[in-house]
């Protein structure tokens, strides 16, 4: 197990390095440069600023320097917000994004599970049909459309909840729902299909033949087995949430990382682009790893790095 | 209900409602099981063996399954009518079941030990530690080596034969009065088959359990059963003691079965002759004897009316028109006679 984790860590670092490299060179090949819109700055001053940030040097040299700094935990300073380090900016935006992501994941997984289970156990009933329609809708409506609709109807028309900004728990409700619906829909669909499959398995008959009640048989035997495939989609779903929040944060004017990311690309704030990309990539890679660990916990057959005995 | 019987099945009818109509899987099955007896149920695939045995445990999914008619008497209760809560108290405690495929009948995400303990905790009201102790004892009893470490392993770490041993441990943990084994050895390879059967017989003696054994292997029947129930198209066509069924079978279907199934006790060069044709469709079973269309001795009446079940001896019962006093006498195919003297 220890070796397996170590091996995974190695792969994770390599993946991160590839992403950093690709982003670095792609970013620099974008047309324009950080100071192109600043017409009022004299040419000499521009050159001095570029020099100060090391942008006058050849690209490979910049790349090596960047990696060197990165190893020391230094992501550089922002071009736009003068003098503020990228790390500081990230730490400022992250709490809101994290809260949003966690809330959406928790709500999504919990309700998705419930909905999927009920649909499977009451197969063919109105609950099942309603859940199915909801799943298809939740699956096909993009989160920015949903976010806009929620903001307009619940926020503006009904005035029940704030339309934007981030000043307390109630401000997180609409954006969380906008993000969670896809998770609920996907989870519900997976759990329903899996649950039906599992309920027909021989070991469920064994469980009943022991004298377990239908409820015990479901909670003790069916649920865990039905969860296994759902865990595999959890990874991509959470990643979807992370990237989805880029847009949703924008719609609800939340001062999170998403906002910062989009902004930094538009004004070519190189250091912020790099910093946020690295941060998001690391987040996604770690999420995938955690999902794999979770998978191993739930399914004993793939523990010990997938080796069967 | 006879005091010597653990179980009496009386005129059981079970159907499944499907899109195509009503599948009459079991159409009037009656048999009884005496205390300490092993009753073998034989018959071609699809004749209703599993449905009958799962009806006893009431494991038939309802819907689509329905009990149309008949009784299953166990200790004075009709199991077809017992409230679900009481039925839960009987399953696993008084009646237990082993299924055909040990690869799929154990939960892959629960340790073997926990799967054995569940029944003990439920029926014997044991605490965790006691239940674990008892589970260890069961693993030892069914012959699993180093049970102390095996108990915390998962099914995928067990071989097929060991899984079936574990299944037996689960089934027998609460010392049930009746054990139903639905083809417990079919999915195992030959050497292991014999071991599992020996184990079952051995434990049956030790624990004083009665067994209903469903099997396709007549050799197994000859070796382990006291009595035989021959089923065809949802009906019992013949029952009798092992000696009667092997030495003096009376139903042409039983003759066909004897001639078509492999037997460990007969020499290898005995030729197998398959029964020609196929069993009737249970969506619309024939009104006469279901075997008539395949029976070399079928008469006009066979196709029109189902024969009564008649006593051929105190223990042997047959449902065949050839038993009728006015029927022509038909010889048992001579290669079957005496072939199975034990
Ligand atoms: N859930 C179900 N829905 C519809 N028909 C069913 C269902 N379960 C069983 N049947 C039908 O009942 C009949 C008897 O099936 P059963 O499983 O008892 O046969 P069997 O004698 O056990 O055969 P085998 O030797 O292959 O195990 C078959 O025709 C089968 O198609
Ligand atoms: Mg069967």
Automatic annotation (TrEMBL), chain A:
The keyword Cell membrane applies. One of its GO terms (biological process) is transmembrane transport. Pfam families: BPD_transp_1 (PF00528), BPD_transp_1_N (PF19300). Keywords: Cell membrane, Membrane, Transmembrane, Transmembrane helix, Transport. PROSITE patterns: ABC_TM1. The chain crosses the membrane at residues 9-27, 100-121, 133-153, 173-191, 226-252, 272-298. It comes from the Bacteria. Residues 94-295 form the ABC transmembrane type-1 domain. InterPro entries: BPD_transp_1_N, MetI-like, MetI-like_sf. It is found in: Cell membrane. It is a multi-pass membrane protein. Its main location: membrane. One of its GO terms (cellular component) is plasma membrane. Belongs to the binding-protein-dependent transport system permease family. This is Oligopeptide transport system permease protein.
UniProtKB/TrEMBL annotation, chain B:
It comes from the Bacteria. It is a peripheral membrane protein. InterPro entries: AAA+_ATPase, ABC_Ni/Peptide_Import, ABC_transporter-like_ATP-bd, ABC_transporter-like_CS, Oligopep_ABC_C, P-loop_NTPase. Keywords: ATP-binding, Cell membrane, Membrane, Nucleotide-binding, Transport. It is found in: Cell membrane. Residues 7-258 form the ABC transporter domain. GO terms for cellular component: plasma membrane. The keyword Signal does not apply. GO terms for biological process: peptide transport. CDD domains: ABC_NikE_OppD_transporters (cd03257). One of its GO terms (molecular function) is ATP binding. Belongs to the ABC transporter superfamily. PANTHER family: DIPEPTIDE TRANSPORT ATP-BINDING PROTEIN DPPD, OLIGOPEPTIDE TRANSPORT ATP-BINDING PROTEIN APPD. This is Oligopeptide transport system ATP-binding protein.
């Amino acid at each position: 197990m220890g070796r397996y984790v170590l091996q995974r860590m190695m792969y994770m670092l390599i993946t991160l390095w590839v992403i950093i490299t690709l982003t670095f060179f792609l970013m620099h090949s974008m047309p324009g440069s950080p100071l192109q819109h600043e017409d009022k700055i004299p040419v000499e001053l521009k050159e001095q600023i570029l020099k100060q940030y090391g942008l006058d040097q050849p690209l490979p040299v910049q790349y090596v320097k960047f990696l060197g700094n990165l190893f020391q935990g230094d992501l550089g300073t922002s071009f736009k917000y003068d003098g503020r380090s990228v790390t500081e900016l990230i730490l400022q935006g992250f709490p809101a994004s994290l809260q949003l992501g966690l809330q959406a994941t928790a709500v999504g997984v919990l309700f998705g599970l419930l909905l999927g289970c009920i649909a499977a156990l009451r197969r063919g009933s109105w609950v099942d049909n309603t859940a199915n329609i909801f799943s298809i809708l939740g699956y096909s409506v993009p989160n920015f459309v949903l976010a806009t609709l929620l903001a307009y109807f619940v926020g503006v028309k009904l005035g029940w909840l704030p339309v934007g900004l981030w000043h307390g728990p109630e401000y997180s409700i609409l954006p969380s729902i906008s993000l969670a619906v896809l998770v609920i829909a996907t989870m519900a669909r997976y759990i329903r299909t899996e649950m039906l499959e599992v309920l027909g398995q021989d070991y469920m008959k064994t469980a009943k033949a022991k004298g377990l009640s239908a409820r015990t048989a479901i909670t003790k035997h069916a649920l865990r087995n039905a969860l296994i495939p759902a865990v595999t989609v959890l990874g991509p779903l959470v990643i979807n949430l992370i990237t989805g929040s880029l847009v949703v944060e924008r719609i609800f004017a939340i001062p999170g990382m998403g906002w910062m990311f989009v902004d930094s690309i538009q004004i070519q704030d190189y250091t912020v682009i790099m910093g946020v990309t690295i941060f998001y990539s690391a987040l996604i890679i770690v999420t995938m790893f955690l999902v794999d660990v979770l998978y191993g916990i739930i399914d004993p057959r793939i523990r010990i790095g997938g080796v069967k005995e | 209900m006879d005091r010597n019987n653990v179980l009496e099945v009386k005129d059981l009818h079970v159907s499944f409602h499907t899109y195509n109509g009503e599948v009459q899987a079991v159409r009037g099955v009656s048999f009884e099981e005496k205390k300490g007896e092993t009753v073998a149920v034989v018959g071609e695939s699809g004749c209703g063996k599993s449905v009958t045995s799962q009806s006893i445990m009431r494991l038939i999914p309802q819907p689509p399954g329905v009990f149309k008619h008949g009784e299953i008497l166990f200790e004075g209760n009709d199991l077809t009518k017992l409230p679900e809560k009481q039925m839960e108290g009987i399953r696993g405690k008084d009646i237990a079941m082993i299924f055909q495929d040990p690869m799929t009948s154990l939960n892959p995400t629960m340790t073997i030990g926990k799967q054995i303990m569940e029944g003990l905790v439920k029926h014997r009201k044991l605490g965790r530690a006691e239940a674990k102790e008892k589970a260890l004892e069961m693993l030892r009893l069914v012959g699993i080596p180093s049970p102390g470490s095996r108990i915390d392993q998962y099914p995928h770490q067990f071989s097929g034969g060991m899984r079936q041993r574990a299944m037996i441990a689960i089934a027998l943990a609460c010392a049930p009065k009746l054990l139903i084994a639905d083809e417990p050895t079919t999915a195992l390879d030959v050497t292991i088959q014999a071991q599992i059967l020996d184990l079952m017989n051995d434990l049956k003696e030790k624990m004083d359990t009665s067994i209903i054994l469903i099997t396709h292997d007549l050799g197994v029947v000859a070796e382990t059963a006291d009595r035989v129930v021959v089923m065809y198209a949802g009906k019992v066509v013949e029952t009798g003691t092992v000696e009667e069924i092997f030495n003096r079978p009376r139903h042409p279907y039983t003759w066909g079965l004897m001639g078509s199934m492999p037997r460990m006790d007969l020499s290898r060069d005995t030729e197998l002759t398959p029964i020609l044709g196929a069993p009737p469709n249970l969506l619309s079973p024939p009104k006469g004897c279901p075997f008539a269309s395949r029976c070399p001795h079928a008469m006009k009446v066979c196709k029109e009316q189902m024969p009564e079940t008649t006593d051929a001896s105190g223990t042997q019962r047959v449902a065949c028109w050839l038993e009728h006093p006015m029927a022509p006498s038909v010889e048992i195919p001579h290669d079957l006679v005496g072939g199975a003297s034990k």
